[in-house]
Design a protein that fits this description.
There is one protein chain. The protein is an alpha/beta fold. It has one domain: Flavodoxin domain (Rossmann fold), CATH 3.40.50. 43% of the residues lie in helices and 23% in strands. The chain is built from 6 helices and 7 strands. α1 packs across α6. The longest helix is centred in the C-terminal third of the chain and has 20 residues.
């Protein structure tokens, strides 16, 4: 008997492309698992129905002004009460593309996911671009291969854990 397929939802927002590179790498890693369907959705297109349909979630955001991006916050605002007490125990992870330390953006997502009673399965993966000047902050980002590899590894581990029923 074939085990049922599982769905990993990856919700992301990006302005300069860094977070999308990270989210795609995680999606590619998870997609190596044959029993996993990966849904990669921009935060503006994702909503409560997507969260309810997912067996696990990865939330990927840039750090904007020491916080998650506004569109990522909008996704959580639109989804929060519609899924409250309906996703308890589902696994999640977080990716942050940061110009400085990224911890506050990760902490904000963790607080929301605690309210949803999701289960954190990996420490927040924060990639720091060290963008500090207005020019560097606004330029297109290129995530270095070792960091792309870390995102892919997180996705692969998440996908394998879902497929094996660990999460």
């Amino acid at each position: 008997m074939t085990p049922p397929r599982k769905t990993l939802l990856i919700v992301y927002h990006t302005t300069t492309g860094g977070t999308l590179q990270m989210a795609r790498a995680a999606a590619d890693g998870a997609g190596r698992e044959p029993a996993i369907d990966v849904r990669l959705l921009h935060a503006a297109q994702a909503g409560p129905e997507d969260v309810l349909a997912a067996d696990g979630m990865i939330f990927a955001t840039p750090e904007n002004l020491a916080a998650m991006s506004g569109l990522m916050k909008d996704f959580f605002d639109r989804s929060y009460y519609a899924v409250l007490d309906r996703v308890n125990g589902r696994p999640y992870a977080c990716l942050v593309c940061a110009g400085s330390d990224g911890r506050n953006a990760a902490r904000q997502i963790e607080r929301i996911c605690t309210g949803w009673r999701l289960r954190l399965v990996a420490d927040a993966l924060i990639v720091c671009t060290h963008a500090q000047t207005p020019e560097d902050i606004l330029r297109e980002k290129r995530i270095d291969p070792p960091d792309v590899g870390r995102c892919a590894a997180l996705g692969a581990a998440f996908g394998a854990g879902l497929a094996m029923g660990i999460y």
